[in-house]
Design a protein that fits this description.
single chain, 274 residues, alpha/beta, Rossmann fold, 9 helices
């Protein structure tokens, strides 16, 4: 099952005006549980960073920026932060540069880059990588580049599927992933930290996301709608009514998932420091 056809269709609908694009970001922030976890971690980092004193400006890398959802969040939190946003797709880069110029966000630059080759020595205070590493075969090369690109005491924040059923792999025979663009179905919570330490990071932390509440929310807000949209585009017509009925449950499950400690889960939040 592929996301790309759905992404392109939604992009055409919501990219007609800046207002619709911003509305699209807000909807993603509400629907995607990973966005709840990522924004929580960014706010925590921002709070600790501001209390640490020293410089007020921060340099951030959005590594695999996609539609620009997280770049929009980051650039809106503090105008003194500058975000370098990179992606491998030319059309995404051109689209995001155009949109952010139209809304007069000047503290960001989008550029095309291959993360296995991209490095900016000692530049970034924060590197964000959301649902990217599961798409990259040579992940250890990327982790080394992340380490080299971080300033001293900089932090790397990763959101990625775990090996506890990430990408919904356990729902399919012979380990087929629900998201078949992935090169791996998920990381072991210890494996990814060991790889980061081999890359040079002196400290790592990892926790599970998408526990029992998150799995329910994922199915209601993302899995079932995408399956139905892949079967027929006519489902776009009834999609608002579907969410009207199901989203209160999904919202409550998202809230529970972000506040709980999970012994296991299908997602991971991983942090590492230089």
């Amino acid at each position: 099952m592929q996301y790309d056809p759905i992404k392109k269709t939604l992009g055409k609908v919501f990219n007609q005006t800046p207002f619709l694009r911003i509305l699209f970001y807000k909807l993603l922030d509400l629907l995607l549980l990973r966005a709840w976890h990522v924004r929580k971690e960014i706010r925590h980092w921002a709070g600790k960073s501001s209390h640490a004193g020293g410089k007020t400006n921060r340099f951030i890398l959005d590594a695999g920026s996609g539609f620009g959802q997280y770049t929009y969040f980051l650039t809106g939190l503090n105008p003194a932060w500058f975000v370098d946003a990179v992606d491998v797709k030319d059309e995404q880069i051109a689209d995001c540069n155009s949109f952010f110029t139209r809304i007069n966000r000047r503290n960001v630059l989008f550029e095309k880059a291959d993360l296995t080759q991209f490095s900016r020595a000692d530049r970034f205070d924060l590197i964000l990588s959301v649902d990217v590493m599961e798409h990259i075969g040579d992940d250890e090369a990327v982790f080394r580049n992340f380490y080299d690109s971080l300033a001293q005491q900089g932090m790397l924040l990763i959101s990625t599927p775990s090996d506890q059923g990430g990408s919904d792999v356990h729902d399919h025979e012979e380990g087929e992933s629900f998201i078949d663009e992935h090169v791996r179905d998920g990381y072991n919570i210890l494996e990814i930290q060991e790889k980061l330490k081999r890359a040079g990071f002196f400290k790592t932390e990892a926790r599970f996301t998408y526990g029992t509440p998150g799995k329910i929310a994922w199915k209601l807000s993302m899995k079932y709608p995408i399956l139905m949209l892949n079967n027929t585009k006519l489902f776009f017509i009834i999609l608002p009514f579907y969410y009207l009925l199901t989203y209160p449950v999904a919202f409550f499950c998202n809230w529970l998932d972000t506040g709980m400690h999970h012994k296991t889960g299908t997602g991971l939040i991983v942090k590492a420091w230089k």
